[in-house]
């Protein structure tokens, strides 16, 4: 199992590849430099249905999604801002298509972000 690391007091979100399944990890690979005050929330799971883990972070009251591209030169996508305010977040399949959707707070409303296999759109 690989490791993704972030903290409130670190400015980087990094990925450590498990090299052999025995606890030997590669050098950290930068996913994003988030600047001052780091990350408030980190969630790692296959959010786009391609079997590769993606990264969702809460930073400065915004949820940002980084899709795993598994390319040596740029292994995570540019962030997709989910346009949600900080608040409760639930990740589950809401429409029965076997892809995890995101249910979260948008201002004073609840928003459903439907997983389209290529990103998320407000459902």
Unreliable stretches, pLDDT < 50, 5 or more residues? none
Number of helices, where a helix is a run of at least 4 consecutive DSSP H or I residues: 0
Strand order of the largest sheet: 4-5-6-7
Helix fraction by DSSP (H/I, runs of at least 4): under 10%
Number of domains: 1
- The computed structural class is mainly beta
Q: Characterize the overall form.
A: globular
Distance between the termini: 33 Å
Number of strands: 11
Over the alpha carbons, how many angstroms does the gyration radius reach? 15 Å
Average pLDDT for all residues: 82
Proportion of residues in β-strands: 35-45%
H/E topology pattern: EEEEEEEEEEE
Strand-helix topology:
Layout: E1 3-5, E2 12-16, E3 29-33, E4 41-45, E5 54-59, E6 62-66, E7 80-81, E8 89-92, E9 101-106, E10 109-115, E11 120-122
Antiparallel strand pairs: 1-2, 2-3, 4-5, 5-6, 6-7, 8-9, 9-10, 10-11
